[in-house]
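Two proteins follow. First one:
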Amino acid sequence: MRTLCASTLIGEFFIIGFAGLVAMKTDLGQGTVWGVCGGAMLLCVLLCGVVTRPVGVALGWVLQVALFLSGIVVPMMFILGAAFGGLWWASVHYGRKINEAKARFAAEHPSPSGV
């Protein structure tokens, strides 16, 4: 799960940065734009480290909603936010299935050396 979710979050990191460049063409000040975008980009990176914990997944969903709602400022973000929301769901859903399958395999096929 960690790899799939982290890949999605790193993709979002770049999308948020590009959206910040587009948002600079709006009436918002540069400080506001980069304060919000920088905070969201930092959250993406930090979430990569805690994504295996329940709070990491919950914060990831909050980030997905915020990314979608950023379409109010940059309309294309409605589309990208929905796309990344779907990717986040798939990363969490299929990542958990992969983790369960790995655990089942490890239980059924113990290592001969015990490692």
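Second one, unrelated to the first:
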Amino acid sequence: MTGRLNSAQPYALGLFRIVVGLLFTCHGAASLFGVLGMSSVSAGTWPGWYAAVIQLVGGALVLLGLGTRAAAFIASGSMAYAYFKVHQPGALWPMENGGEASAMFCWAFLLLVFTGSGAFGLDRLLAKRSPAAADRPATDKAPVAA
């Protein structure tokens, strides 16, 4: 049973990344454009508009699995900022201060910083097509300097 679960890990991680990225992208789009039942934030307002841009762009990058670790790092930091500056002053616990989403996104993105994109990500596709990988010799020996 453990072997089967371990072999499915990259796919589960890829699906996790896609869902988290999609939810974050939707949140950013809702805040920027006033869609999905939310009102939009005014352009250039601190911190709401900048957070919405990070959510839209960072969420889309994570969703696609493109630059996943960097995008997840920035997204995680923005959610940590949101939690500690916006929610935490109201009360200590996320259930009391309405910061559950910020806390969950922060930790989900931090996980992706360490795990990478998993399966289905453009990171993997581009790594397979990189010219550096194609130019390497097929042997296990290191290249000899002339």
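SUMMARY FIELD: The mean pLDDT is 88. The longest helix spans residues 9-33.
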